[in-house]
């Protein structure tokens, strides 16, 4: 996923991503060039952030081709550097980051149903999770719909095992699909909605990375590669292509991909995989990208090339008479694909040339079904060209307001109406509404597959007569307000349930039979909400009585306390809060994701939490935690009754440490916390004096930390990505496997995403390896859990992925972690 960190760059906040576009005169001119280019390119890779934004921006802004990026996944399996969202909620953020990137570089975004389930070493492993036929179908579907002339793969389909399995698989599927999309017998049901299509060329966008080093790539024979200088400068934007590329790349904020733009020549290399070699270096060579391409297009071209040539930057509305002629001709094209695409483009150019501003806004961010809300329409014509507002239609209600009024120059038309939301669907991400598998989202509606987000339900159609031509202009209904700091803010308008019921912690752990108080938040999305909230618990668990709730104010949240008592023995199950009002049972929670660089996201998701009653013993109570790159170890340990103190680097002193029963280092602490260089001797002395220290994984790349442990220890990139990989115990008598909890094979069941990563491969004999694991067809790794006695204490280094397993409520991982913290504390020592 972090593939191109070194290659590409980035900067800028794009506050209020919902703000309507208001193109300048020179931007309109660029759009005209795009209108007159009938060629399409599709970039192809696996994750959000794999894409080469310099190439996408060059194709969109210099060539003026319609340019797409097909990311097979939404990046659910990545990390999140800006907030707590992981998994599917991270996928929602990264989807929006891709859309923000495309708004910046001018591309369009598409997906498949493949889920980024985490790291895999090769395509074979990838396809154990992905349904190959479904993903291939989605790739074929994307190509048939987008109809690219040229496809460009980010990755090499011939080198499995050299990069993430998702990467190679993306290239392999692209190569396979290239020869299938034009065959009507392949995925024939798609042809109810679209047509077969044959792209002309397939390229692989190679780079130094695939050659091992910049030096090797410099020396490599590139005579068979097409080279493209993507370092163009755009006076219309005052930016170089590579600066735009950096701005686009910087949208991947959850991945920490901010970087600085560059200027000047930048050459990209394309290896031709299919089709004929373009001698001129133009990847569209031999493909008619003029209006002649489409039947009936010649007459349109005759008009529009002149519009482009005679465009008046001081008065864009001077182009309107000719644009309107072309509009009528485009509307009558037989070819539905080009007709729809070009109608959309020319409509937005006509709107921009007229200085038209059209808005349908509410003063509330969300409403419930069948709610009547106020809506304000605004329409203004800032050209001297005659414009009449005929009517405004509301979608989906079909309500039509007939107006028949001239829009005089610069005179603002405003109208307030009431409208009813009707029986609209609750707002959510369409790919999360049905339970999928680890590797696939479940989406059954063919027309939704591949769309970046759920289509907006509420729209207003402004039917305007421009000159003598009637044109419908469609806008999404938006929520608009004035923020005292930000000023004008636009957000999506959403539909939510009457109430949201939610328990904050996704996983609640019980370390013993003691009951716990569980707070259930009820949020009202309607005034005077009145009903009963209750919790459903699994068989064997007990919960206190349902409670009446009254909430007067819309938007207010009340926290209701329930007592949940676990069974005596180990048990797992679902906790399901529900709210009953007027006989109707609500079981959803409304989740909001709010960051400056993406539009506010609202999701209505089933409100379920995991309950775990552990069979666990622990020795010691007071744990010191030193944060690294970010994990939730403190919260997880507190859940099972430990007292955890978070210790900042400055607080690492011998005196502070001596109070702790054990000290735990956060993941990648030595990678990200510089001060640890000076503090490590103090930590190791703590061990020497009888302390227990648990060090979680650090990444091996560029890692040089002389005294990571008390004895020499070398980190490798060894990882075991199969979370089901069999665990072989090397030393069954080891204290960590016996005290205070007896660890058995059962404790390695139910792990998520992976076993672990960056295991040490060479270590001093003072370290005792405890278990051995390996992925299929790979050598065993014994370094995932190492324990050394040092002085009076114990030092533990572990690459096992506790940072994933504990938040997922994996009971065996808790038991093993408790044992690590207890090592050396056994009074009747089993074994040192
Ligand atoms: Zn990737």
Description:
This protein has 17 helices and 43 strands. A 7-stranded mixed sheet has the order 3-2-1-4-5-9-6, with helices on both faces. The chain has a 7-stranded mixed sheet with strand order 34-33-35-36-43-42-40, with helices on both faces. Strands 22, 24, 26, 28, 29 and 32 form a 6-stranded mixed sheet that branches. It is α/β, with parallel strands linked by helices. The structure holds zinc ion. The site of zinc ion has 7 residues, from loops.
Return residue spans where pLDDT drops below 50 for at least 5 consecutive residues: 1-16, 828-832
The fraction of residues assigned to DSSP E strands is 25-35%
Overall pLDDT: 94
Rg from alpha-carbon coordinates: 30 Å
Structural class label: alpha/beta
What's the multimeric state?
Answer: single chain
Précis, in short:
By secondary structure, the protein is an alpha/beta fold.
Notable characteristics:
seven-stranded mixed β-sheet, binds zinc ion, disordered C terminus, disordered N terminus, 17 helices, alpha/beta, single chain, 832 residues
What's the structural blueprint in terms of helices and strands?
Layout: H1 25-35, E1 40-45, H2 53-62, E2 66-71, H3 87-105, E3 108-111, H4 123-129, H5 132-146, E4 150-153, H6 165-178, E5 201-206, H7 214-219, E6 225-229, E7 233-234, E8 239-240, H8 241-249, E9 267-274, H9 297-309, H10 320-331, H11 336-353, E10 357-362, E11 366-367, E12 372-380, E13 387-395, E14 400-406, E15 413-420, E16 459-466, E17 469-476, E18 478-483, E19 487-492, E20 494-495, E21 499-503, E22 507-510, E23 516-524, E24 529-536, E25 542-543, E26 547-551, E27 557-565, E28 571-581, E29 584-586, E30 588-593, E31 601-606, E32 609-613, E33 622-626, H12 633-639, E34 643-646, H13 654-657, E35 662-665, H14 669-672, H15 676-688, E36 692-695, E37 713-720, E38 727-729, E39 756-763, E40 767-769, E41 771-773, E42 785-790, E43 793-798, H16 802-805, H17 811-822
Parallel strand pairs: 1-2, 1-4, 2-3, 4-5, 10-18, 11-20, 22-32, 33-34, 33-35, 35-36, 36-43
Antiparallel strand pairs: 5-9, 6-9, 7-8, 10-12, 12-15, 13-14, 13-16, 16-17, 18-19, 21-23, 23-27, 24-26, 24-28, 25-27, 28-29, 28-32, 30-31, 37-39, 38-41, 40-42, 42-43
Helix pairs in contact: 1-11, 2-8, 3-8, 4-6, 5-6, 9-10, 10-11
The structure holds zinc ion.
């Amino acid at each position: 996923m972090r593939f191109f960190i070194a290659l590409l760059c980035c900067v800028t906040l794009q506050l209020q991503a919902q703000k309507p576009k208001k193109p300048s005169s020179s931007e309109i001119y660029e759009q005209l060039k795009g209108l007159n280019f009938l060629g399409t390119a599709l970039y192809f890779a696996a994750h959000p952030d794999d894409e080469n934004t310099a190439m996408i921006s060059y194709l969109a802004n210099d060539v003026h081709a319609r340019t797409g990026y097909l990311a097979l996944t939404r990046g659910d399996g990545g990390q999140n550097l800006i907030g707590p969202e992981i998994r599917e909620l991270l996928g929602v953020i990264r989807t929006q980051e891709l859309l923000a990137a495309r708004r910046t570089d001018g591309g369009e975004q598409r997906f498949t149903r493949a889920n980024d389930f985490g790291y895999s070493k090769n395509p074979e492993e990838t396809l154990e999770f992905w349904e190959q036929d479904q993903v291939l179908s989605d790739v074929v579907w994307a190509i048939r719909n987008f109809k690219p002339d040229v496809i460009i793969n980010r990755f090499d389909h011939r080198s499995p095992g050299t990069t993430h399995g998702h990467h190679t698989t993306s290239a392999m599927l692209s190569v396979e699909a290239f020869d299938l999309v034009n065959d009507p017998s392949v995925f024939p049901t798609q042809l109810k909605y679209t047509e077969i299509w044959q792209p002309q060329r397939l390229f692989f966008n190679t780079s130094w990375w695939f050659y091992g080093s910049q030096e090797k790539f410099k020396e490599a024979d590139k005579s068979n590669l097409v080279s493209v200088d993507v370092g163009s400068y755009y006076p219309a934007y005052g930016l170089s292509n590579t600066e735009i590329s950096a701005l686009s790349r910087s949208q991947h904020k959850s991945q920490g991909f901010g970087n600085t733009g560059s200027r000047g020549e930048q050459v990209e290399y394309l290896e031709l995989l299919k089709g004929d070699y373009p001698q001129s270096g133009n990847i569209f060579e031999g493909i008619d990208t003029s209006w002649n391409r489409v039947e009936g297009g010649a007459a349109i071209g005759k008009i529009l090339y002149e519009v482009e040539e005679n465009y008046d930057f001081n008065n864009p509305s001077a182009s309107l008479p000719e644009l309107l002629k072309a509009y009528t001709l485009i509307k009558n094209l037989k070819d539905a694909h080009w007709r729809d695409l070009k109608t959309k483009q020319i409509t937005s150019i006509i709107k921009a040339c007229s200085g038209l501003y059209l808005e349908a806004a509410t003063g509330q961010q969300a409403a419930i079904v069948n709610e009547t809300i106020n809506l304000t329409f605004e329409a203004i014509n800032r050209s001297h060209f005659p414009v009449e507002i005929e009517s405004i239609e509301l979608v989906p209600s079909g309500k039509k307001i007939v107006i028949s009024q001239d829009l005089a120059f610069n005179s603002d038309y405003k109208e307030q109406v009431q409208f009813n939301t009707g029986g609209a669907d609750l707002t959510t991400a369409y790919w999360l509404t049905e339970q999928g598998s680890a590797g696939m989202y479940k989406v059954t509606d063919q027309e939704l597959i591949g769309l970046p987000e759920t289509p907006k339900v509420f729209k207003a159609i402004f039917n305007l007569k421009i000159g003598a031509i009637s044109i419908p202009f469609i806008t999404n209904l938006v929520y608009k307000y004035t923020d005292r700091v930000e000023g004008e803010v636009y957000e999506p308008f959403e539909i939510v349930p009457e109430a949201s019921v939610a328990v904050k912690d996704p996983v609640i752990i019980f370390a013993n039979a003691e009951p716990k108080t569980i707070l259930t938040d009820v949020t009202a999305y309607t005034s005077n909400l009145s009903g009963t909230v209750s919790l459903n618990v699994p068989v064997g668990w007990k919960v206190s009585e349902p409670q009446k709730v009254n909430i007067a104010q819309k938007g207010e949240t009340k926290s209701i306390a329930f007592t949940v008592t676990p069974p005596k023995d180990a048990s797992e199950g679902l906790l399901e809060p529900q709210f009953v009002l007027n006989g109707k049972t609500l079981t959803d929670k409304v989740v909001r994701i709010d960051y400056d660089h993406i539009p506010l996201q609202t999701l209505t998701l089933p409100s379920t939490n995991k309950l775990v009653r552990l069979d666990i013993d622990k020795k010691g109570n007071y744990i010191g935690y030193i944060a690294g790159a970010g994990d939730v170890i403190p919260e997880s340990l507190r859940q099972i009754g430990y007292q955890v103190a978070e210790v900042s680097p400055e607080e690492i002193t011998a005196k502070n440490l001596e109070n702790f029963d054990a000290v735990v280092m956060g993941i990648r602490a030595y990678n990200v916390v510089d001060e640890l260089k000076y503090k490590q001797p103090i930590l190791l002395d703590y061990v020497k004096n009888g302390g227990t220290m648990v060090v979680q994984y650090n990444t091996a790349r560029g890692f040089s930390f002389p005294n990571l442990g008390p004895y020499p220890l070398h980190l490798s990139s060894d990882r075991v990505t199969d979370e089901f990989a069999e665990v072989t115990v090397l030393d069954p008598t080891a204290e960590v496997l016996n005290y205070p909890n007896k660890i058995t094979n059962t404790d390695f069941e139910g792990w998520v995403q992976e076993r672990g990563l960056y295991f040490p491969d060479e270590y001093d004999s003072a370290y005792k390896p405890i278990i051995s694991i390996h992925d299929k067809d790979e050598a065993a790794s014994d370094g995932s859990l190492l324990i050394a006695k040092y002085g009076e204490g114990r030092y533990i280094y572990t690459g096992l992925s506790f940072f994933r397993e504990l938040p997922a409520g994996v009971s065996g991982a808790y038991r093993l972690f408790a044992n690590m913290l207890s090592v050396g504390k056994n009074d009747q020592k089993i074994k040192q």
